Automatic annotation (TrEMBL):
Record-given protein name: FeS assembly SUF system protein
Every MIP18 family-like domain range: 12-85
InterPro entries named in the record: Fe-S_Maturation_MIP18, FSCA_dom_sf, MIP18-like
Signal peptide: none
Pfam families assigned: FeS_assembly_P
Organism: Formosa algae
Length: 107
């Protein structure tokens, strides 16, 4: 009998991992910056992350999605991970958490 995957627990673990990844130009993690739009987890422990970048020509446009994918894949419970980049809606400072705004002196 296989254990049923607890997608809520896995979702929390994924968020913890995302909070360890930082935009190199801004000292705030990508989750608090609002760069992560959605995290989907299916019963097979396959993860899809919909994220954006601060700008389309962001210097880490090549490396940041790969870092996100690799770190999420490194979780024991995750079978596979895929990152999809979107610019719809475009990122704006409104997407940042209060914590991120405070960190950057915007509050």
């Amino acid at each position: 009998m296989s254990e049923e995957l607890d997608t809520a627990v896995l979702g929390e673990k994924i968020v913890k991992v995302l909070k360890t990844i930082f935009d190199p130009e801004i000292p705030v993690d990508i989750y608090e910056l609002g760069l992560i739009y959605d995290v989907f987890v299916n019963e097979d422990a396959e993860v899809k992350i919909l994220m954006t970048l601060t700008t389309p020509n962001c210097p880490v446009a090549e490396t940041l999605p790969l870092e996100v994918e690799e770190k999420v894949k490194s979780l024991d419970m995750v079978k596979d991970a895929e990152v999809e980049i979107t610019f719809d809606p475009p990122w704006s400072q409104d997407l940042m958490s209060e914590e991120a705004k405070l960190e950057l002196g915007m509050l």
